[in-house]
Amino acid sequence: MTVVTQLKPPSHHKPDHADDPAAGCERRRRLAGLLEACAEGDRQAFRALYDLSARFVFGVVRAVVSDYRMAEEVAQEVYVSIWKRAGSFDPQKGNPMAWMAAIARNRAIDRLRAERARGFIVACEEIPDIPGDDTPADLTVDALAVRRALVDLRPEWRDALLLFYFRGYTHSELAGIMDIPVGTAKSWLRRGLSALKEALE
Length: 201
Fold this sequence. Notes:
By secondary structure, the protein is mainly alpha-helical. The chain has helices at 2-5, 21-39, 43-64, 68-85, 96-114, 137-152, 155-166, 171-178, 182-200. The chain folds into 2 domains: 2-123, RNA polymerase sigma factor, region 2, helix turn helix motif (Rna Polymerase Sigma Factor, Chain: A, Orthogonal Bundle); 153-201, Arc Repressor Mutant, subunit A (Orthogonal Bundle).
């Protein structure tokens, strides 16, 4: 789609007041309006949406896809999906950034699964950095809190969570790569999520 393929890579410029909660609320309202315009086929609105969200979306993709060039390709695919699915966003039910982040994560995981023939990874010790410099303040705080909580988890629980949620492994694949029964893999995920939730309360 021309409207997507002509988009430039995300800029490293940090917008003014990026860490201001009030500015974050205003941006969410603007993004919601832009998504509504995109649903009506407004390409200028789509470009504005990209300019406001590209670094954040790319950061979400990079948290899953370590290869930079592949992450760029996935990010472009994400915006194709956003353009096509803009009409499904309901501002009454969700945050536009969270909605786009879900699309980005799912698309990134789909790419990893498509590349799975290259071989399973052995470990997953790196905790990804999701937020970029221009991430809305509320999402930045949440992401940093999750990162700190992950660091303090038991290693096997942390690795299971990272492999399952950030690398896209299924329960059976997780069991195979960690050399444990499927039931144990599921148990580690449950316990890890429970410990993570407790740490964030």
